Amino acid sequence: MRIHLVTAVWGEAFTQLYLSTCLPNQMTSSNLPALAAGAAPVYKVYTRSQDAAVIAAAPAFRQLAAMIPTEVIALDHLFASSSHSDNALLTMTACHRAAVDAANHARAALMILPPDQIYSDGTFARCLEWGLRGCGAVVVPGIRLNKEGCEPLLSGRATNRSAVLGASGRSLLAWSMPRLSAIARAMFVDADPFSNAPTHVYFPVGDEGFVARCLHLHVLFINPRRRVPLRYGNFDTDYLLDACPSLEDYHVVGDSDEMLAVEFSPAGKQLGQAGAGRIDTRTLAAFYRLHGNRLHRGFLQAPIFMHTGDLTPRWREVARRSGDVVGRALPPWSRLMMRVRGS
Amino acid sequence: MPRSNLALLGTARQDFVLAAAAALREGGATVTGVVAEGRESSLREAGIPATSFTGRISVWSLRLLMTVRRLRPTGVVVVAGDQVAHTNVLTALNWWRATGLLRGADIYLSLSTQPAVLECFNSSDQRERLFAALAAGTGAIALLFWPSAVLTALAAAACFEFAARLARRRVATPFASSPAPVWPLLADDPELGWRPRPVDITAITTTPDTAALTRRVNIDSAGHRATGSPASQSDSGPLVAMYGGAYLFGDALGDEETIPARVAVHLTRCRIVNRGVPGYGVAQSASRLLMDLVDAPPAAVVLVLSAWEFARRNVDASAGRWRFRGEHSRFPLSDRLATIWFVKRWQNNRWAQTNRRVALQGLSDGCSRAGIPAILAIAGPEFATVEQERDWPGIRLVAIAEGASEEHVASLLAAEIESAIGPGSDRENSPGHRRLG
Lengths: 343, 437
Fold this sequence. Notes:
By secondary structure, chain A is an alpha/beta fold. Helices cover 40% and strands 19% of the residues of chain A. By secondary structure, chain B is an alpha/beta fold. The radius of gyration of chain B is 25 Å and the shape is globular.
């Protein structure tokens, strides 16, 4: 199976974070090496010229280049306009568009790896397994951590650095829980104020973790059913409707033991945490209507267990309650589908 | 020009709308802003005529439709800024287009990363839905009057469909695929299916145990791929334009490794331009050549074709146009109904064959009329077919041996160009000096 691993990164801070932390994390034993053993991966970094030189010369990247084929692609025309710094989302989408074109040309599957995201060990091997089984896409929630709170890890001062970068799902989640960002904390169902960009809703289960219901999930792996270009919208919104139109094509990772993705968000990043009071079903419904398509609403049907211990009946109870809360914010058809699927 | 009169639907952030308007005007288009009420003043301050609308855009926004119709645009451009969810806008526009309410105006996207590059977004979904609704409606009415005949016809259609599904499994994957280039350098276009966009790409490629390889892909705003350093080429020499698909463009090659770049090394007194476009078939390349022949004729034209390009269809016969690269209908009848898939396939094949003949005939006639030497270089067995098809007055046919290196092809073409334009040709290349009537 041909797989293109894609990262879009530019700017000193992100390039540094990617090279010092995220790339070493991807190179742990059951991630990239496992993928290299079972598939034909090509690692593609989309960036601009000045960062391309830094990336190509970095020791971690050279180690990667010795393992699998790599391409560092500078798309300087995207950075020619002064507005790009103002417009990181669209620039990133333009990079993803380039990646989709290249994957379509090579008839390859795609793994999209944000430059600020790390994974539990075994995540890549598991994606490959799903890909070989014929799955169209593997989607996971990206849990946001407070970047400043993770400073010892990111700067290389943490003594348990290699343990964290190669941790299993449970260990990584246990390390992450005290470091959740304000954006993520505002998404807990009992938060006050509750997020006004509730792409995820988290239902706590004591100190053991939480059940997540997610409208937007990170598309970690996709083997497009239809080889179409990414024309507009983000990689994880409209493109999904074109590339893998059926909900049956998706594997929603429902257990953090299987895979876990966490990402680092600076404390200054604003994404709905200012909120406006406690959770409100009508506001939630309006958000889902405006920001979700039928696939996104389908993702909400699956409870996602983020746990640091074993699952007990209590988790099932919280999952049922989470289905009730989110179901009330969904249109009748989606609610019915949720009941039919028994979640 | 499809861009001559554009209605700019400014649903994105105001600075992105202003940047798009400025970039499009710079490209020679007449632009009128259509923005939400209260946002028109800043456009007017920038010297851009503007009109306004109210409310969220949907297919029922009839006031917006009337506003756009009054402008009689040849294209409606939707500006995408940093927020990129414009499904409602594009869906509404495509419904209006499918029902003829937009008077045939094309729909484009302008992304703020490259605001001057317009990407066509004419979707076929709505047309197909209308067709399906019409067929279902007619069937329902007919059922009231001739129930047994309709039921028999339905049963026959179901049998056909069942057989077609079985047959399709043997010949194709269930979903049609679009041509995709190695690099992100194409934008959909209503005239030719897709065109190159300006890019500046540098790729450092490595494989374990080999040295890093650096390749550059540069395309200018006119859609020409770079053919080497400017110093090595004559600025005032005769312009030789080279056309073709991925083979001529040099899909997997760096700028200086392509056939046109190597020809430029041989013919330093000429200005060689690479107008190849990845994914083009024979008729698309010939059509682009003929368009340029009318707009700004060069001193000589060269069309280089590979066997692969003869096999390309790239047409949507039912819509009577080139297929878009991003033909990604979400309601593709041909994906859902195998009978329609076969009918379309047959239709497209016929249309493509006719297109190829008509395009090569047009090329021959156009170049003869304009007195422009044309060279048609064909790689592989298709050369014999084309040679035997008929006489091609005004065209020099050149056979390229299968597996010939780029350098060999370049030296062959350079010699042919040299002999076609003559050693002391004074054909100047100022744009438009030899317009066709």
